[in-house]
Amino acid sequence: DLYRKVFVFRKDPSDAFVVLQAQLEQPLRNFTVCLRSYTDLSRPHSLFSYATKAQDNEILLFKPKPEEYRFYVGGKFVTFRVPEGRRDWEHVCASWESSTGIAEFWLNGKPWPRKGLQKGYTVGATAAILLGQEQDSFGGGFDLYNSFSGELTDVYLWDAGLSPDKMRAAFLSLRLPPALLAWNSLSYEVKGDVVVKPRLRE
């Protein structure tokens, strides 16, 4: 249970990463991924990378620059422009629905204008799920200059789109529905220089 704890990725650039184990019974036609990050990086970095053997960017949350997030599904992406952070924790949730191809992006509990992405697509179930690196092949192919350096916490993956109330609940760390990946019952393996520490402040 990682309640009130964080992963600290200490080096920049870094070859470290964290492997997450999720029990996916079937491919995903809807999903929501949420996490909280704290970094002073201005270069591109990966926050959440979900690769299958067929597609290395099956699901990817990527930050190419401080005022931009990219959300990939099945190798295609949409861009969400954001105010440059005040060097504080940023909480992001991204959800996607196959039937409409609607991609939602929430930053610090507020929704951005929705965008269209990969209507009718299905996300593969046999996946390598990593924090801290961007996969260019299944479970590997890292570029050190896309690595994450800083602190990550509150990582979740659901096989459904969350309602606006639940999106806000995720931001506020309130009670959440059962998830494929849940921070308070995370099955993970640290590879390299990543340290689990208490959160410094709420």
From TrEMBL:
Give compartment(s). Secreted
Primary residence: secreted
Q: Which residues form a coiled coil?
A: none
Q: How is the cofactor bound?
A: Binds 2 calcium ions per subunit.
Q: Which residues form the Pentraxin (PTX) domain?
A: 3-202
The cross-references to InterPro entries, in alphabetical order and at most eight, read: ConA-like_dom_sf, Pentaxin_CS, Pentraxin_domain, PTX_dom
SUPFAM superfamilies documented for this protein = Concanavalin A-like lectins/glucanases
Taken from the UniProt record, the cysteine pairs bridged by disulfide bonds within this chain are 34-93
CC cofactor: Ca(2+)
GO terms for molecular function, please?
complement component C1q complex binding; metal ion binding
State the GO CC annotations: extracellular space
Q: Which GO terms describe its biological process?
A: acute-phase response; innate immune response
Keyword Disulfide bond present in the record's keywords: the answer is yes
Please provide the record's keywords in A-Z order.
Answer: Acute phase, Calcium, Disulfide bond, Metal-binding, Secreted, Signal
Please give one Pfam family short name.
Pentaxin
* Assembly: Homopentamer. Pentaxin (or pentraxin) have a discoid arrangement of 5 non-covalently bound subunits.
Record-stated family: Belongs to the pentraxin family.
What PANTHER family does its record include? C-REACTIVE PROTEIN, C-REACTIVE PROTEIN-RELATED
Descriptive protein name: Pentraxin family member
Q: Which organism is it from?
A: Pheucticus melanocephalus
What gene name is listed for this protein? Ptx2
